Amino acid sequence: MKRIYVNEEWCLGCHLCEYNCAFANSGLSDMALALKGKPIFPRIRVEDGEKISYAVSCRHCTDPICVKSCIAGALSKDGDTVRIDGNRCVGCFTCVLVCPYGALAPGENGVMRKCELCLDNACGEPACVKGCPNRAIVYEQRGEA
Q1: Which of 6, 32, 106, 116 has a Cα-to-Cα distance from 131 of 20 to 30 A?
Q2: Gap between the Cα atoms of 137 and 145, Å rounded
Q3: How far apart are the first and last CA of the chain?
Q4: How deeply is 104 buried, as exposed, middle or buried, from its count of CB atoms within 10 A (0-12, 13-18, 19+)?
Q5: Which domain holds residue 127?
Q6: Is the pLDDT of residue 120 over 90?
C-alpha cells in the first residue's frame, strides 16, 4: 500500500506540511481565511531536533493498536487506512497513549485527529506531500506490493 514516508535528512523544519494539512482539512477554499490569526490543528506535525527535523504522521499500521484500544469504537481500519469517526470519539486520549508513533492529537474541539491521507479532501495526494518544498515527505509504495 502507499504510505507517507519522511526523509529526515531533507526536512528543513519549515512546518509548511502542517499548514498545508490544516488548510486541506479546513473545508475552506482560501488559505488565508482558513488559517490567518487562528490556531491550526494539522494531522501531521514536525518534531524539531538538535540535528534533524522530521514530520510525524499516522503510519496506518497493519494491526493498529489504537483501533483495538479505542473505548468508543471511533477508530477503525478501512482497507489499508486507519480512520477516525469524530462523532464517536469521546476524547479519552487512550489512542494517544498507545500509539507508538505519537500520531494522534486532540483537535480544537477535543476530538482526536490523525492523518487520513487526505482521502476525503480531493487533493489527489496528501496535502503535506504536495506542499513540501524539499520533497522530504513522499507518498509511495515501498517493499512488497
Answers
A1: 106
A2: 20
A3: 7
A4: buried
A5: 1-57+117-145
A6: no
Q: By the 8 A CB rule, do 120 and 12 touch?
A: no
- What are the grid coordinates assigned to 3, written together? 504510505
pLDDT category of residue 62 using cuts at 50, 70 and 90: very high
> What is the C-alpha separation between 52 and 116, in angstroms, rounded?
25
Angle 84-6-31 from CA coordinates, rounded to 5°? 60
- Decide: 25 and 19 in contact? Cβ < 8 Å: no
d(CA 80, CA 4): 13
| Whether residue 51 is found in the same domain as residue 7 | yes
- How would residue 4 be classed by pLDDT, with cut points 50, 70 and 90? very high
DSSP state of 25: T
Q: Mean per-residue pLDDT for 57-73?
A: 95
CATH number, domain containing residue 74: 3.30.70.20
65 and 108: one domain? yes
pLDDT of amino acid 104? 95
Whether 96 and 126 map to the same domain: the answer is no
How far apart are alpha carbons 129 and 136 in whole angstroms?
Answer: 8
